[in-house]
Amino acid sequence: MAADNFPKTTTEKIANRQLLFMLFMMRTTVVIAFLPVLTSADALQDAWASAIVSFFTSALLVLIIGGLGIRFPELTIVEYAQKLIGKWPGRAICLIIVWALLVIVATDTRIYAEALITGFLTETPLPLIVFAMVIAGSTAAYSGLEVIGRSADLLFPIFISAILLSLIFAIPEFTLLKRNLEPVLARGVGPVLRGALVPTIIIAQYLCLTMIIPATNQPKKALGTALWALAGSTAVLTLVALAVTAILGPDRGSRSVFPFFNLVRTLQISEFLERVEILALFAWGFGIFIGVSVFMYCGTRAVAQVIGLHDYRALIAPLAVIWGTFSVHSYQDIFQIRTYFDARIVVPFNLFWILFPMGILWAAYGIRRLTGRKPNEE
Fold first, then answer.
1. Cys-Cys link to 55, which of 30, 234, 294, 369 (CB 3.0-4.6 A)?
2. Does residue 79 lie in a domain region?
3. H-type helices in the chain, by residue range?
4. Cβ(90)–Cβ(78) under 8 Å?
5. How far apart (Å, rounded) are the C-alpha atoms in residues 45 and 254?
6. Cβ neighbours of residue 92 under 8 Å, at least 6 residues apart?
7. Residue 296 falls within a domain, yes or no?
């Protein structure tokens, strides 16, 4: 099948800068919410080292996820999967990506809703908060990727400023309690490597790249943009891990449901200035909004291409209902969500979402290159 027979992916274009902001906010929001380098393993005072290690392992997965996209810069994964392995197998493979996006957006939304209920809106029904976020994300997705990109432009400075201010306020306490970071690597590198597993596998969020790359103004540079976003989020994760471990202590920090949120809540800037956790909550909310919007856009567009629908917008309303309902009913409470982020559970799931579809497509691409066949040849 010739490439010209494929419809144009999208007329929308976003700057690679906007892609960087979106990916950075999506990942940073989740990795500082649960702080998995500290809470998902036994790294304890060496959690910051796990954060650094997670960059290199996550970067490898980013290369696997986005590498084919820059080889087919004008096609989404639904389109180039059909070119590589055939129409129906290609569409079937992409349904795994759609399912992954469903679980990720439902989980991220539920985490933020639980944080709001736990810390502030204790009497508010959970479905109300979840569907308010789903409606906001659906509205942005309906408006298109360019609107999401401009929203990221607007919210990124506020997002990063709120996080940095929270960390700056923690500096006096950090200076007094930095002894909690010692001894360094006292138990060897094993705990550090185990602590890097969950933040590494959360990179499954970047599966959205497979749908967004053709919409960037420089598709060939999208992979580098994703790696820069990963580097920035890793830097934030490292700083947060240092601050939480130093101030709350490794034991208390590892037992906290929302370690960074609890850290900011303990800070008292002066006699008249406290409860600055609102900064962290606002930053978290902005990141969730961008993440939900991106996943809504990518998920509905992927489904539309799988079933051959010209306009993805017709699917936003029904899929938003499905995703919101899934978010409410897939977990009993915040402790079950935390159990899901146990390395023994989340690592196999997310690895399957990444390695199974991408492994098949990479193998098909490699075979075609070795045999000299072009991907568009039947």
1. 234
2. yes
3. 16-33, 36-39, 47-66, 77-85, 87-119, 126-143, 145-169, 171-177, 190-195, 197-201, 209-212, 222-248, 250-255, 259-266, 277-307, 316-329, 334-340, 343-371
4. yes
5. 10
6. none
7. yes
Percentage of residues in the chain having pLDDT higher than 70? 90
Q: Any idea which of 101-105, 134-138, 179-183 has the lowest mean pLDDT? A: 179-183
Q: What's the CATH code of the domain at 293?
A: 1.10.4160.10
Name which of 105-119, 129-143, 172-186 the model is least confident about. 172-186
Torsion angle (degrees, nearest 10) of CA 286, 288, 291, 293: -80
Structure tokens at 122: 């204790």
Beta-ladder partners of 216: 14
Provide the 8-state DSSP code for 183: S
Task: For residue 270, give the amino acid letter.
Answer: S
Query: Domain count of the chain?
Result: 1
> Is 364 inside a domain boundary?
no
- Cα–Cα nearest to 358, from 90, 149, 178, 17: 90
Q: Compute the distance between CA of residue 238 and CA of residue 353 in angstroms, rounded to an integer.
A: 26
231 SS3 class: helix
Whole-model pTM above 0.85? yes
Which of 110-114, 170-174, 247-251 is the least confident region?
Answer: 170-174
Domain hosting residue 84, numbered range: 11-359
Per-residue pLDDT, 6: 42
How does residue 333 score in pLDDT terms, banded at 50, 70 and 90?
confident
